[in-house]
Structure formats: C-alpha cells, structure tokens
Amino acid sequence: MARKQHQKKTPVRQPERASHAAPVVAYNLRNVAVAVALAVLVAVIYTQVRTHQFIDFDDPAYVSKNEHVLGGLTWSNVVWAFTTTHASNWHPLTWISHMIDVQLFGVDAGAHLLVNAALHALNCILLFLFLQLATGAMWRSAMVAALFAVHPLHVESVAWISERKDTLSTAFFLLCLLSYTRYVKTRSLPAYITTVVMLLLGLMAKPMLVTTPFVLLILDYWPFVRMSRESLRKLLVEKIPFFGCIVPSIVMTLIAQHNAMSSVVSMSLLIRISVAMIAYVAYIGKTIWPSGLAILYPLSTSIQPSAAIASSILLIAVTACAIYFRRTMPWIFAGWAWFLGTLIPVIGILQVGRQSMADRYTYIPHIGLFVAVIWSAAFLVRRRPAMRVPAAVAAGVTIALLAATAHAQVRYWAGSIPLFAHALAVTSGSNKIARVNLGAALVDAGDYSGAEREYRAAIGYQDAEIVYKGLSLALIGQGRLNEANAAAHAAMKANPNSADALAILGSVALALGNTAEAQSAFSQSLKIKADPAVEARLDMSRGDFQEARGKFEQAVSVDGENATVRNDYAAVLARLGEDTEAREQYEDALRLNPNLYDARMNYGALLSRLGRNPEAAQQFQQAARLQPHSPEPHVYAALVNANGRQFGAAQREIEQAMAIDHDASNRLLISAIRIPPRPAAIDEYLAFLRQQSGGR
Q: Which residues lie closer than 8 Å to 463 by C-beta, 6 or more apart?
C-alpha cells in the first residue's frame, strides 16, 4: 500500500519542481537586469564627477581642510569622530567614511565623489529591492527606483562631497526598511534586531533619520496592512526601541546645531510656519519641473501672506484627497504622509542656517511622492488597458528627460565658480551668500577684479566681516594695498575678535612697510586662533627666517592647496639661500593659482638672481598682465632684459612703465638698482637703453 502511494507521488512532484524553477530563474534574472540598469543610469549621469574639485562651501570643514579627516583612519581620529559636533552635526560614521576615503585615495576630490555615486547606485538598487519585497510589484518598484536614480534634485546629494551623509545614511535607512519587511513577513527576532541596528547606524550617519519610526508605522498602514489586523497599541509598543534610538540623536543634534539655529526672536513662529508651507509646495513644484536648481536658496523673512495662504490651501487639499481615497488607493495616503513626515526635521520650523530650502532635503522624502504617483498611474492603466503603451512611452521619455537634466546639473558642480555663478543666475541678484562664495572662489582662482565686483555687490550682507575680508584679499591681489587696508579695518569693525581679519590686516601692513602694526595684528590674531602661517609671517616681520621656515613647513602640511602660503614659504626659502626648494614652492604656488601676482614677481626676482633672465622676464610679463595698471612688473622686466642684453625689449618695458606712472616708475628703478634718488633717473635709463638698442 505504501509502495503504491510512493509510485503515485513521484511523477507529480518532478513536474512541479521543474515548472517552479523557471519562474524563479526568470524572476532573479529580471532583478539582476533591473539592478544593472539602475547602476548604468547612475553611471551615465555621475561618472563625470571624476574630474570635479572640492567645493569651497562645507567641503573644507568636512574633508579638504579637516586635519582629523586628512589624518586618515586612526584610533585617535575615530575617537574624535564619536565625540565631536564639528560642522554642527553629530554623525561619526560620516566622518569615518571620509577618513576611509582619504586612507584609500588621498585628497582626491574625484575619487571621493565616485564613492558618493556608488552609494547612490546602491541606494537605487536597495530601494527597488525593498519596494518589490514589500509590495510584490516589480515594474512599479523599478520605475520608482529609476526616478530616484535620475531626478535632478538628487544631484546635490551625490555631486557634493559634504553630502556623503545623505547617501550613506540612506543606505542604512533602506537596509533598515528591508530588514523590517523581512521581520513583518517572518516575525524573525534577528530581522527585528537588524532593523534596530540599521537605524542606529543610519542615525550616526545623518540625524535626519529621526522620522524612521513614523515611516515604519506608515508601512504598517500600507503596504503591510497591519493596522487592520493588529491593534495600534501593539504596533506602537513594537516601535519603542526605535523611538529609543532617535531620542539621543535628537538631543545630540540640538546641542550640535544650537549656534546654527536662527533665533526665535528674529523669526516668529508664524513666519517659520509660512516658510515651511511655501517650501513644501516649492519642493513639489521642483519635483515636477526641476529647473532653477541652486546650491542655496536664500531665506527671506519678508513672506507674502498670499503665497503662504495659497500653499497652505494646496497642502490641505492634497491631504484631504489622500484621506478620501485611503481605502481605494491607500498608497496615496502612505506616500503623501511619507513625503510630509520625512521633511519635517528640515522644513524650517526649527530654522537652521540661512536657506529657505535645499535640494538635498528631498533625497528620502521623494520616495513617498514617487510611490504615490507611480502606483496611482499603474492603477489607472489597469482600468484602461489601451493606455498601457502610451504610459510605457511616457515613462521612458520622463526618465530620459530627467536623466539629461541631471547630467547637465552635475556639470555645475565641477567647481566653486560654476556652482555659485549658476546659483546667482537662477535665484536672484540679492542672493548675497552666493555672491560672497563666488567672490571667494574668484580670489582662489586669481580673478581679483571679478572677486572685487562680487564682494562690492554683497556689501549690506548681514555678515559684513566676511564681505570685507574677501574684499581686502581681492584688493591685495590687485596691488591696491591702501584700499585693502581700509577694507581690512572695516572687517575688524564688524568683528573686532576676527582672527582672520587681523591676519589680513597684518599682511597688508607688512606689505606697506608698517612692521610694528603688522606685528601687533599678527600677535592679536594668534591670541584668538593658532595658525602656523600667521606665526610664520610674524617671524618674517621680525627677521627670523629660520623660525619662519619651520612654521611654513607646518602650514603647508596642513593646507597644501593654499597658493599664498606656498608663495610666502618660497620667499623665506629664497632669503635663506635654498634656491632649489624655493623654486619648487613658487612653481607649486603658481600651479595652484597662476594669477598670483606676488608669486610671479617673487619667482621672477629669484630667477633673475640665478641668472635665468629670459625666464625671469616671462614671469614679470605675466605679472604685468595680472596688474595692467602697475608699472612695477614692467620696470623689473626691463632690468632683466637689459641684463640679458635684450635692450630693445628693455626699452619697450620702460616706456610702458613710464606711460602708466612716470614718478612711480622712477622710484621703483631707483630702489631696484640702488642709486641716489633723482627725479630724472628713469629718463636717463631710457636714454641709455635707446642708445644700446641703436637709437630707436
């Protein structure tokens, strides 16, 4: 009897196994294909970041000038990561990820950005896997993940090194949701514990994940439909460990961001609520039509009541619709609640910083909007099968257009100048924060007249110290030392305890020959903030070049990308007779900033002393192009050309110098060749050159 039963079952079982294997294989292959497609989409948009540079906005604090991060992954740096609130955040895992990058790639901005792009690709794949596991809807999940991959509002989170916290925290967030989905389906204790651990790790990457327990409750409503089967009390009790995780994160964030928070007195609660309502609608608008994207949208305390009222009415109307359709289309309510809820920490009720909104804040909230839209579209298509092909075409076109827009947006992140110039162009001329940062970027690039223009346009910005410090540097770069001195004093008036303003004031005084004033300014600066470069300049002003050398070595090791520091270091080396090292430092300075006038002049003087007159003349000619209204480079170019017996070239240089400023040229010549002062010295020298060049 038993034997017959065995014979009956055998032919039935084998076909069942065979028929089940094919769908599983096809299912897995489709998953792999979708994952590969998502990775390719991300690569097409973001591989261009390999050639991008650090942005001079947060990146210095996070990586390029952070001595702990630049020190790599060491025990002391890891301890620092867990104990610091540097950059107004407590996110130790983000600091550690930057340290690992430095350990692996050094200070290579492109490599750091590729890690961001890889994390973004991982997040797209994790989002797809989570939605598919939670809902069983493969193609809808793939479409949401594709929108997440290509939306231009996400460029800021990927193409900005400082936003590693976005991509890293989202990876832990999505792993948290995946493990929670596994827990809901299996009631496995390890899955539950993994969910809690992933949330903890995510909070240590970015505290914006404090809304995660509420997201889990949204998932309980849809797609898990637990609220109809289990009591709300039971679900809330289940979330107690998650709420326990977020409380210390909230406390640490409030402590870290205390100084960055706008005063409640300066911004009333009504204004902050109005800003929040307008921001919600603006995020939706930029999601639908992603144009005019900028690194910073200036915060205005002058809110149009009509805009706030209209935004509030729209939000209430959408919320009412989501509630009305919650039974037939529960994904709308779930997606809308996700979007509204996950934006709460950054929507502006507790205002941090001077921005009204930020593209990066949509990184996780967008998931809710995308789910609501894609699931609703699929619902409508199922009711009207004739729409299937047009809907598929529309989906493909949408992804292509968004990808092309995102690719174009990434290009603006190639460096600080294109980024802030674009921000200024698409926001408004009153975006003084963008102007100030563009001015700083232009100073770093050696475009001092352009920087002066931006800083002067930014006068009236509430942080006057920053404006006048930058203006002083722009004027120093143009050789307008008296004006630079006035600007430095204006910066000091705005903030008498500004170490940087005092250091600039000292440098200007030293260049003007006011040694006592320079020493006083440098000393006061060092009392406020230790800085090896300022210490070195103080030593220079005292004539202690050997001591200055050691301080400059330290300064270069901390800030090797600072062309001005390298120029001053080279000048000290030249004074000590270490000409080979001095040449290397001048060349490094000019590589970092080809428009650094002082480096051109100093390098020309060194080359002249070494008898390399043609090369020296080239440096002085480059300097003349940088400061066309100064006779100084022409006088020195004339002298080195004359030393090389190029009298015709020397004559032309002297004539140009005299045309710019006869008296100044005369004083420069007397000082350079060390002859007794006389008013016609420059004319006599020109006559000599004409004679030597054949009387022309």
A: 436, 494
DSSP state string for 143-180: HHHHHHHH-GGGHHHHH-GGGHHHHHHHHHHHHHHHHH
Does any domain span residue 456? no
Query: For residue 567, with 0-12 CB atoms within 10 Å meaning exposed, 13-18 middle and 19 or more buried, which class applies?
Result: buried
Domain residue limits at 329: 25-412
Residue 55 lies in a domain: yes
Domain count, the chain: 2
Question: Residue 535: inside a domain, yes or no?
Answer: no
Q: Residue 619 is part of a domain; what is its CATH number?
A: 1.25.40
pLDDT digits (tens, 9 = 90+) for 659-683: 999 998 999 999 898 888 888 889 9
If you search the block for the tokens 């990308």, which residue do you land on?
561
**Structural element, H or E, at residue 11:** helix 2-46
pTM of the predicted protein model: 0.88
Q: Give the count of alpha carbons within 13 A of 7, CB side only.
A: 4
Look-up of token digits 């040694």: 515
What is the DSSP secondary structure assignment for residue 298, as one 8-state letter? Answer: E
Q: Which tokens belong to 233?
A: 């009390």
- Within a domain: 505: no
Tens-place pLDDT, residues 310-346? 999 999 999 999 999 999 999 999 999 999 999 999 9
Contact 619, 607 (CB under 8 A): yes
DSSP codes of every residue in 269-291: HHHHHHHHHHHHHHHHHHHHS--
Could you read off the pLDDT of 491-531 as tens digits, one per residue? 999 999 999 999 999 999 998 999 999 999 999 999 999 99
| Secondary structure (DSSP) of 459-510 | TT-S-HHHHHHHHHHHHHHTT-HHHHHHHHHHHHHH-TT-HHHHHHHHHHHH
User: What does the H/E/C string look like for 422-445?
Assistant: HHHHHCCCCCHHHHHHHHHHHHHH
DSSP letter at 73? S
Question: Which distant-in-sequence residues (6+ apart) come within 8 Å of 344 by Cβ?
Answer: 211
CA atoms of 562 and 557, how far apart (whole Å) = 10
Domain end marker among 343, 377, 412: 412
| Residue 284, CA distances (Å) to 218, 289, 315, 363, 437 in order | 20, 9, 10, 13, 28
Under 8 Å between Cβ of 128 and 139: no
Residue 101 structure tokens: 């990058």
- The residue among 355, 384, 412 that closes a domain is 412
Quickly count helices (H) and strands (E) in the chain: 35, 2
Query: Minimal CA–CA distance to 556: which of 573, 541, 542, 544?
Result: 573
Pairing of the two strands 297-298 and 355-357: antiparallel
- CA–CA separation, 607 vs 195, rounded Å? 66
Q: How many residues in total does the chain contain?
A: 696
Task: Identify the helix (H) or strand (E) that includes residue 355.
Answer: strand 355-357
Distance from first CA to last CA of the chain, Å, rounded? 127
Could you tell me if 609 and 636 are in contact, meaning their C-beta atoms sit under 8 angstroms apart?
no
